[in-house]
């Protein structure tokens, strides 16, 4: 083990749409977590590995805390809170635009109090408010919990993220490299492709439809083009809960599905560094959000 080298496990926790996934991508300078301006975008606990000569931080990005309505929602919240039990440091992310501690943030605070974890409060989206409002928010939260540090940041502009990393490293123990320096996530290629396709569906579809879908890659094979170039042949299925939603996802003349697939293929090719032949189907599976064999994928 390298002398004075620090390593450890960190969990990001916060309400939906607070910017956890954006922050994760910004810290890594790699896109491993999908982002969308819709609640409940993150469904699983995604691990990211932040490497340097002096430290290795293994970060878990958790699903946003929200009021559960299905078995899937319950599993997502259970995943988020379970991840807190296994880490050295918790980063509690809140929005700078808040005026008070809302119900979701109160629930997180109560969980933190019961666990007595080392916790950093990261106040995101500080570029959207005046300094006086930020100071007031810092005062409100510092009266509720004894945070190791309170760090104002902007995940989209990278402001304050270097300070956040410094504060995390201060709290980590001396330890080994748990992963090689080349690794930056524990997700499989299939999982990352599924998430890319779901991200595009979240981006292009209206608010009601995306939360009733999940994506499954059914084929992932390497082939050759007519010009003898390497190509990945990928088949995927977008499952939805309603027949009416299937029509919306496909769109008139297949236009919406083509739009989702084209945008997905572009990002997948960028990730793999090779040509991609992506075929996507849409199927109805009405009760998938209550099916244990499907929901367990999100644990």
How would you explain this protein's 3D organization?
- The strands form two sheets. Strands 2-3-1-4-5-6 form a six-stranded mixed beta sheet, sandwiched between helices.
- About 4% of the residues have low confidence.
- It has two domains: 166 residues, Rossmann fold (3-Layer(aba) Sandwich); 110 residues, K homology (KH) domain (GMP Synthetase, Chain A, domain 3, 2-Layer Sandwich).
- The chain is an alpha/beta fold and 299 residues long.
- Helix content is 35%, strand content 24%.
- The radius of gyration is 20 Å and the shape is globular.
What's this, in brief?
The chain is an alpha/beta fold.
CATH architecture of the largest domain: 3-Layer(aba) Sandwich
Uncertain segments of ≥5 residues (pLDDT<50)?
A: 38-43, 65-69
**Biggest beta sheet attributes:** 6 strands, mixed
| Percentage of residues in helical conformation | 25-40%
Radius of gyration: 20 Å
Determine and state the CATH class of the largest domain.
Alpha Beta
Briefly note the CATH topology name of the largest domain: Rossmann fold
Number of helices: 9
**Overall shape:** globular
Number of separate strands: 9
Terminal-residue CA separation: 32 Å
CATH superfamily of the largest domain: P-loop containing nucleotide triphosphate hydrolases
Helix/strand layout:
Blueprint: E1 6-14, H1 20-28, E2 46-51, E3 55-61, H2 71-85, E4 89-95, H3 103-115, E5 119-124, H4 131-142, E6 149-152, H5 161-171, H6 189-204, E7 213-224, E8 230-240, H7 243-250, H8 255-272, E9 275-284, H9 292-295
Helix pairs in contact: 6-8
Jot down its keywords.
globular, GMP Synthetase, Chain A, domain 3, Rossmann fold, 2 domains
